[in-house]
Amino acid sequence: MSIARKRLNPEESRSAALAAARRLLLRDGPQAVTLKAVAAEIGRTHANLLHHFGSAAGLQAELARSIAERVTGSIGEAVERARAGEADAGDIAEMTFDAFSSEGAGALAAWMILSGNRDALNPILESIRDLVGHLKVGHEDRHVDETTLWLTLLALGDSLLGPSIAEALELDGDTARKIAAKRLRSQIEHAHPRE
C-alpha cells in the first residue's frame, strides 16, 4: 500500500527541504546534510531535491544563506537597539556566538571549507557584508568592519574549539562570550555615550 504524499509547490518544497537540512545539521552535524538524507527526512526523492538545489553543495549553500540572513537580520536589529541605548551590547555578542554554535553556522562553514566547497560560503559572506554596509550608514568612522571581523572570528573559533580550550585553561566554557560582550559594550558605549 502506498502512502499519498501532499503535493507541494516549488517554494514549499524548498522551504521544507531547508528546514529538514537545518534539523539534520543541528542534530547530526554538517556531514549529515546530504540530498539523500534531506529527501528521506521530508518524504521526497533525491531527484526532487536535485531539481531544486542542483547538488548537495547547492543545498548547503542555500542552508548557509537562510541561516545567515536570519541571524544577520536579528543582529542588525540588536545593534540598532544597543546604539539607541535600548538593549545591551552583550545581546549582540550572544546572538553572534549563538549563530555559530547553536544555529550550526560554525560547523557548516568549517565543513564547507574542509570539503573544498568554499564557494558555498559566499551567502554567509554576502549577508555579513550587507549587514556591515547597513550598520555603517551614518557610522563610517566607527570601525564597524574591524568590530565585525573580530567578533565573527571569535564566535567562529569558539564554536569549533572554545569549550575545549577553555577547559584546558581551567576557564568557564563561556569565557570567550563574556570577553566579547565586555569588549563590544565598551566599544558601543564609547561610540554612543549616554547623556
TrEMBL record:
Residues 11-71 form the HTH tetR-type domain. Coiled coil: none annotated. Residues 34-53 bind DNA. Keywords: DNA-binding. It comes from the Bacteria. It holds the Pfam family TetR_N. This is TetR family transcriptional regulator. It comes from Sphingomonas hankyongi.
